[in-house]
Amino acid sequence: MTVVVEGLGLRYPRAAAPVFSGLSAAFAPGALTAVTGPSGSGKSTLLYVLGLLVRPTAGDVLWDGVPTQGLTDLERSRIRARDIGFVFQDALLDPARSILENVCDAGLFAGMDRAVQVELAQVLLGRFGVEHRASHKPGEISGGQAQRVALCRALLTSPRVVLGDEPTGNLDAESARVVWDALRDHARTGATVVVATHDERLADTADHRLVLP
Question: 61: burial class by Cβ within 10 Å (0-12, 13-18, 19+)?
Answer without folding.
Answer: buried
